[in-house]
Amino acid sequence: MISKIHKKAQEEMVGFVVIVVIVIVVGLIFLVISFRSNGNLAGESSNRLDSFVKSVGYYTTDCEITKSHYENIESLIAGCHDGKQCVSGEGACEKLTNVLKGILNNSFVVTGKSYVIYYNLDLRAGKVIKENTTSIGESIIAPISAGNISLGEDGLKNCPGLRLTKDRSFSAGSSSQKAVMRLEVCYSLVS
Amino acid sequence: MPTFLVNHKSGQLKMQQMIFMIIAVFIFFTLVFLIYASMNLSSLKREARDSQTEKVAGMVVKLASTPEFNFNNQPSSVDIDKLMVLKDKKVYAQFLGIDGAIIEKIYPTSKGIECTETNYPECDIIRMFTKEDIAKNFASSAFVAWCRKVTVEGRSYNKCELARMVIEARNITGA
């Protein structure tokens, strides 16, 4: 009888120890996840992206559409939209594409283990319909992208981390003509 | 074996079982409490750090628009000529509420040449109010246009390149 009671008590204790171990393991997993998650990533990256689309328009290129006047990205977009050429003979669109490629390549490093998984810059013509409302039309230049972009079943790009997009509109010729620059960056959540 | 002895042993076993159970329950709840407390503490620490970093991130944008830094009233643009004048005047660090700032050209590609009075403007990095590399405390970065007035054949124009500005702040009191 004693050994029966003893066995029962042992079984209960083993069961309890198993439960405690499971709870500890689950707790540790939660702890590791909470340490690894990067809570401020969205805010900081969004600020950085915003500053990028704001400052990139001022970049001065070596393209002169009129002699002794070096075009910045903003005016080069208008020049490209109007089909103009640089004094050197290079097309405004070609120049714009090359400069934007160089800027993006130096600003967002995309390698196997980098923080940025992919980026995509799309520059489209737009028209102001109402105040603060722009309809987006055809691409002015071919989209510039880098990194591992795969499409999901819904046809949208797959981003395993945090996807952020920023738009900036530039004037392109007349006041109602706009060019909309959309930058999409996919960040890895593992730092 | 007499019956009273068997009962006695069984009672002792039950008491032992109860003691073990109480100890195990105590350990279990202590562990649960410790895990909960450490999770709470770490999230609190992270929130405090996030809040500071967010304030610093806001300061980068704010700093680029102050008259001491800004170029031609353009958003997110810094006047490199002004920064060269201010870079060693530590009194401005206090005035602007930062410990230091580093502005590094990223396009055209930086060669890592630090700006001094002798090599300016053929340089890529300006260290403001500091000689060290940033990120000992709360630091954040943003893209800025690195701009200055350039005169070629008697005509002056605005020349802007792309740079990254990193600022460091230890004590942030306001947003």
Shape label of chain B: rod-shaped
- Give me the side-by-side strand order of the main sheet of chain B: 1-4-5-2-3
| Most residues in contact, chain pair and counts | A-B, 42 and 55 residues
Helix content of chain B: 40-55%
Low-confidence stretches of chain A: none
* Estimated structural class of chain A: alpha+beta
Number of beta-strand segments of chain A: 7
Number of helices of chain A: 4
Largest sheet of chain B: 5 strands, mixed
Gyration radius over CA of chain B:
31 Å
User: Topology as H/E string of chain B?
Assistant: HEHHEEEE
Distance between the termini of chain B: 82 Å
Oligomer: heterodimer
> Helix amount of chain A, in percent?
25-40%
Mean pLDDT across the residues of chain A is 81
> What is the first-to-last residue Cα distance of chain A?
60 Å
- Average residue-wise pLDDT of chain B: 83
Tally of structural domains of chain A: 1
Helix and strand sequence of chain A: HHEEHHEEEEE
Report the structural category of chain B. alpha+beta
Quick take:
Chain A is α+β, with helices and mostly antiparallel strands. Helix content of chain A is 40%, strand content 32%.
